[in-house]
Amino acid sequence: MNRALPVVQLRVPTDEDAFAWHRVFDHPDVMEFHGGRSAELSVYEELTARQRKHDAEHGFCFWTMLDEERFPGEVLGFTGAQPWPHAWGPKGEIEIGWRLGRAYWGMGYATAAAQATLERLRAAGVRSVVAMVDARNERSIAVTRRLGMELAETFTTPASKQQGHCFRLEL
């Protein structure tokens, strides 16, 4: 039996969201596939600023994820899309991604927010997306499957030397 996905709100990240992202992602489980340890606040300050720029330029970004009905005033994480930011990998493509605070795992938020992201990307005229996922990250791989994405390529990340997957979806 499929349960209904939660209703999420997505907003362009604010300056204050850098603090919220820093706090909600400060958990070893959350950071397991993102460097293995908590990032400095400055990383999130730069990331939220870059996302505001992406939204202004492209009409999409990594949005702050909320559920005002169940968790009023709480930032759950982020989801959205951005141009692939690295010199390696799918240069020139649009990457969809998500990250949730540990307290919000297993509730359908990543899937619900990623589906909302795909709707916004279609409306913005984006024709395809990729998701770059650590090969060990079974939870994120499950989200890509729920979105209908297909494995397009396997790669080794330059920094961590871990095996990863590039999933693709034509919109």
From TrEMBL:
| Gene3D superfamilies given in the database record | 3.40.630.30
Is the keyword Transferase in the record?
yes
The record's annotation in SUPFAM superfamilies points to: Acyl-CoA N-acyltransferases (Nat) (SSF55729)
InterPro entries cross-referenced by the UniProt entry: Acyl_CoA_acyltransferase (IPR016181), GNAT_dom (IPR000182), N-acetyltransferase (IPR051531)
Keyword entries, A-Z: Transferase
Enumerate the spans annotated as N-acetyltransferase domain.
8-171
MF terms from GO for this chain are:
acyltransferase activity, transferring groups other than amino-acyl groups
Q: Which Pfam families match?
A: Acetyltransf_3
| Protein name per its UniProtKB record | Acetyltransferase (GNAT) family protein
Q: Which organism is it from?
A: Streptomyces jeddahensis
